TrEMBL record:
Annotated source species: Glacieibacterium arshaanense
Active site: 38 (proton acceptor), 248 (proton acceptor)
Organism superkingdom: Bacteria
Gene it is expressed from: alr
Protein name: Alanine racemase
UniProt xrefs under HAMAP family: Ala_racemase
Keyword annotations: Isomerase, Pyridoxal phosphate
Amino acid sequence: MLPSPASPRLLIDRDALVANWRLLAAMSGAAACGAAIKADGYGIGAAETLATLAAAGCRDFFVAQWSEVAALGPLPAGVSVAVLHGIQHGEMATARASAARPVLCTPAQVAAWAAAGGGTCDIMVDTGMNRLGLTPAQAASGLLDGIAVDTLHSHLACADEPAHPLNARQCADFTALVTQLRPCRAALANSAGIALGADYHFGLTRPGLGLYGGQPVTGSTLALQQVVRIEAGVVQVRDVEAGASIGYGATFVAPRAMRIAVLGLGYADGYRRALGASGVARIGGRPCPVVGRISMDLLMVDATGTSVAEGDRVDVDFDLAAAAAASDIAQYELLTGLGQRYSRCWT
């Protein structure tokens, strides 16, 4: 079934995605720069993201689950995919048959992989986040003897806070482990970690948010380009008299006669209620603020003085850093929360 003409669209800028990867790759120095494409490419489409970045020279990609590998289809020559959650119960046959590498996270996963015949894998070590990974003591205990480790990973807990003392402590602990184990490669830095400098880069970096136009460090001014834009259809245009209320709860009362454009976009599409009055549509280049509460499927904007008509399509601002600051919702959550009713249009 075709989407409604009023259904919102995501306009995804392929050149901006590539430019962001190239910037992060340059910042990574001598380290190879990969790409995290989990959660369906942070919501924009993992298969298209992989194809676009592979064509630009990226060779290392990261997903969370084996189902995400299957959704990618055949991999381009020379491209590798690592599955960050390792091998959960019942997934060994899938992992053994896959071209992707598991990132083994527990002693039980390491033992099961070895018992199943081994082969090249990655290892995750926890250096202070207490999320996934072997402890450094487990990794150094001989557990990995005979295991063909491609990449030793760890993950920074506070990379978006450059002055946090845990960053240096994790980096030092990981450096010591890399020196002891001597894996083929090592990877510690996400987008924010890349910005911490060369000590954090090791042989491979794993950017995510920065690829998609988010600012990985609060207040940073990296020259990252906006990748995702929202376009919404105008469902209705109505004239509202001064003193009339608009939207649920009657929280907005028109201070004057207004022309209101009702857009087919709402919180079910990931355009969060918390954006509220900070939301802005652009009609003919003119900023038109959101008025009233955002509904599940609709929002209203002040289109007074414009010639907007039902059936038109208008741009809705979705700068990730600005939206996060206005809503107090993490950029990651805003991006990955974009719904499935969008048509995703790569440009």
